[in-house]
Write a structure and sequence with these properties.
Helix content: 25-40%
Shape: globular
Radius of gyration: 18 Å
Strand order of the largest sheet: 6-7-8-3-9-10
Structural class: alpha/beta
Number of helices: 10
Distance between the termini: 30 Å
CATH topology: Rossmann fold
Number of domains: 1
Strand content: 15-25%
Number of strands: 10
Order of helices and strands: EEEHEEHEHHHEHEHEEHHH
CATH class: Alpha Beta
CATH architecture: 3-Layer(aba) Sandwich
Bound molecules: adenosine-5'-triphosphate, magnesium ion
C-alpha cells in the first residue's frame, strides 16, 4: 500500500489561539482506498484538509504528496490542486458563478486547458455527477443536494487523483447521499483515492476500506475498519466505543 498523501509530525495553531489544532499529526493516506476520516468535533479534520492542498502551511512538520514535500509558491500550488480536489461541507461556499456550466468550467479554465478540453472535462464531470440537465441553470436556484453534486462536479472536472470531501453529505437526504456514493463507487473503479470526513459510523463500516481516527489534533488510529473494531484500547481512548456500538 503506497502512500499518496502523508503528514509527518505536523503542528498547526490558528493565529491568536493558545492550543494546537494539529499537534504532532503523522498519518499516511494510502492510494486507491476509500478512506473515512472520523473523530469528534474539533479533533482537527477540517484543519487537516486545509493543509492538503496547501491552503494552510504547517507551523512545523511536513506534508507530502506522492512522496514530494508540498511547496507553497503559486505555480506549485496550482499544479498540486490539479491532483487534489476538495469539496467542503457547505456547497454554497463553493459555488460562485452565475450558471452551473460556468461553475464547473472554472477549474479546468484555470488550469489553462483549451476550449475543447474544458468542454470535454465539464461534460465528463457533469455526466458523472448527473447534472447535465442543470448546466444552464443559475447555481442559486438549486436544491442543497443538487448544489452538492454541482460542487463535486466542479472539483472532478479537474480529474484529481485524490478527492477530499469534508462532510459533503451531512445535509443530504438518503437519496442524495445514495447518489453521491454512486459517484464515489465510479471514482473508485477509475482508481481514484477518496477521503471522506464523516460522523456516520455506517459509512465507516459499509463504504470505507481504510479509516483514520483523529483525536486532539493527532491520528489516534489508521487501518482497516475491521482492525479498528478489534482495537478496544483505541475505541475506548477515542470515545468511539460508546457511540459505535450504540448505533448498531
Ligand atoms: N478558523 C479558526 N480559528 C481558530 N480556531 C479554529 C478555527 N477553525 C478551527 N479551529 C480550532 O481548531 C481545532 C480543530 O478544529 P477543526 O475544525 O479542524 O475540527 P473538526 O474535526 O473539523 O471538527 P468538526 O467535526 O466540528 O467539523 C478546534 O479546537 C477548533 O476550535
Ligand atoms: Mg470540520
Amino acid at each position: 500500500m503506497s502512500a499518496l498523501l502523508e503528514f509527518d509530525d505536523v503542528y498547526y495553531r490558528y493565529p491568536g489561539q493558545d492550543h494546537y489544532a494539529l499537534e504532532g499529526l503523522s498519518v499516511a493516506f494510502p492510494e486507491g482506498e476509500n478512506i473515512a476520516l472520523i473523530g469528534r468535533n474539533g479533533a482537527g479534520k477540517s484543519t487537516l484538509f486545509l493543509h492538503c492542498n496547501g491552503l494552510y502551511q504547517p507551523n512545523s512538520g511536513q506534508v507530502r504528496f506522492a512522496g514530494h514535500p508540498l511547496k507553497y509558491d503559486r505555480p506549485s500550488l496550482k499544479s498540486l490542486r490539479q491532483h487534489i480536489g476538495i469539496v467542503f461541507q457547505n456547497a454554497d461556499d463553493q459555488l460562485f458563478s452565475a450558471s452551473v456550466a460556468q461553475d464547473i468550467s472554472f477549474g479546468p479554465y484555470n488550469l489553462g486547458l483549451s476550449e475543447t478540453e474544458v468542454r470535454r472535462q465539464v461534460h465528463m464531470a457533469a455526466e458523472l455527477c448527473g447534472v447535465v440537465d442543470m448546466l444552464e441553470r443559475p447555481t442559486h436556484a438549486l436544491s442543497g443536494g443538487e448544489k452538492a453534486r454541482v460542487a463535486l462536479a466542479g472539483v472532478l472536472a479537474m480529474d484529481p487523483d485524490l478527492l477530499i470531501s469534508d462532510e459533503l453529505m451531512a445535509n443530504l437526504d438518503p437519496w442524495g447521499r445514495r447518489r453521491i456514493f454512486d459517484i464515489f463507487h465510479q471514482l473508485r473503479r477509475r482508481g481514484k483515492t477518496i477521503v471522506l470526513a464523516t460522523h456516520d459510523l455506517n459509512v465507516v463500516r459499509r463504504w470505507s476500506t481504510y479509516v483514520v481516527v483523529m483525536d486532539g489534533g493527532r491520528a489516534a488510529f489508521a487501518g482497516t475498519p475491521d482492525q479498528l473494531l478489534a482495537d478496544e484500547a483505541t475505541l475506548e481512548q477515542t470515545g468511539l466505543a460508546q457511540v459505535w456500538f450504540d448505533e448498531v
